[in-house]
Amino acid sequence: MVAREPGTTPFQIDLRRHLRENEEDRDLTRVICEIATASRYVIHSIRTGELGVAGTSNLYGEEQLALDVLSDRILRKRLVHSGVVSSIASEESSEILSVNLTGKYAVVYDPLDGSSLVDVNLAVGTIVGIYRGEDILQRGRNLVAALYILYGPRCTLVYSTGNGVHEFAMNALMEYTLVQENIRMKPSGTIYSPGGQRNKYTPGVEKLVQALEAKGSKLRYSGGFVPDINQILIKGQGLFLYPHLQDKPEGKLRLLYELNPMAFLIEQAGGAASNGRERILDIDPKAIDHREPVFIGSKEDVAMAEKFVQEFG
Ligand code: AFP
Questions:
Q1: For the chain: N or C, fewer Cβ within 10 A?
Q2: Is 86 annotated as a binding residue?
Q3: Is 71 annotated as a binding residue?
């Protein structure tokens, strides 16, 4: 850790300097900074771009919006430009892209999660996971870094390389400067974020929600994974769940692009992430479209979720 001059204020610390102070690998720093650069183009597109349909669909049969495709293209271009990326897997593509066999890092990302919320002016985000080597189907516990960018009233970037979780905000020059570092989560929360249709909840999940309400937790749900997780992380407490449903035992969210990066960040902040039976980061990805139920946030709230799911299904 490089010592800071006395009196340095957070806003004087930009993303690249923070990574350098933490003596992060130069190539990893390059990947993270390229993603930060990509976000400048993405946010410009969100604020000014075409919101229409791209006329194509992704691996999940979901209609791709112009912004989905554009954001995917922007990220891919910057990652290829970095020169240190071996392979890329994007939620918007059904193929793993082999970029550079000598590249040090494999990158998985959801370029614009929640994109269907842009036309109603709700917050959306980019989610990224970074592995050493070229293998994309690695367990989340092998991540060397994870980050997300939240395009909301402010544009913020949250990252961890395994040395704590740190938040940055984009300034008028579109640079990311430090807001807070080493974010920590409380063991129990007072908010919960329940995805999926309530009438399709299993008995265990229904009992979990009743127990959360009974302890005074308030419902906070936007329909965007990134803002919903960001709220729990930055407030330092709460539980997000997109559970197994009666008609969808695997839930909805994707292990590679959504769950593993967020589980890495939340665990780095002292929280937990489970599919109701095992730690998200320990799950072996079966394919790039692997989905899992998720209970993620304050440790005691996740433990309560696991108790109800294992006892009542
Ligand atoms: P889209 O990317 O298709 O808008 O879906 C967003 C998302 O994958 C994730 O961001 C949300 O947590 C979840 O779906 C919301 O799903 P429901 O609309 O079923 O609540």
A1: N
A2: no
A3: no
Residue nearest to atom 12 of ligand 1 (CA): 225
For residue 117, the ligand 1 atom closest to its alpha carbon is 4
Which fold, 10-180? Fructose-1,6-Bisphosphatase; Chain A, domain 1 (3.30.540)
* pLDDT at residue 53 is higher than 80: no
Q: Which atom of ligand 1 is nearest to the CA of 112?
A: 2
Confirm whether 10-180 and 191-312 share one CATH topology: no
Pocket around ligand 1 at a 6 A CB cut-off: 62, 113-116, 195-196, 223-225, 242, 252-253
pLDDT tens column, 60-109: 777 777 899 999 999 999 999 999 999 999 999 999 999 999 999 999 99
Domain 191-312 is in which class? alpha beta
- C-alpha distances (whole Å) from 3 to each of 20, 21, 23, 117, 167 are 11, 7, 11, 42, 19
Instruction: Read off the pLDDT of residues 139-191 as tens digits, 9 standing for 90 and up.
Output: 999 999 999 999 999 999 999 999 999 999 999 999 999 999 999 999 999 99
Cα(275) to centroid of ligand 1, in Å?
17
Give the integer Cα–Cα distance in Å for 223 and 116: 9
Distance CA 293, CA 308 (A): 14
The identity of residue 88, as a single letter, is I
3-state class (DSSP) for residue 149: strand
Per-domain residue ranges of the chain: 10-180, 191-312
Q: How far is the CA of 27 from the centre of ligand 1 (A)?
A: 32
Average the pLDDT over 290-306 and give the result: 98
Round the average pLDDT of the chain to a whole number and report it: 95
pLDDT, residue 21, reads 94
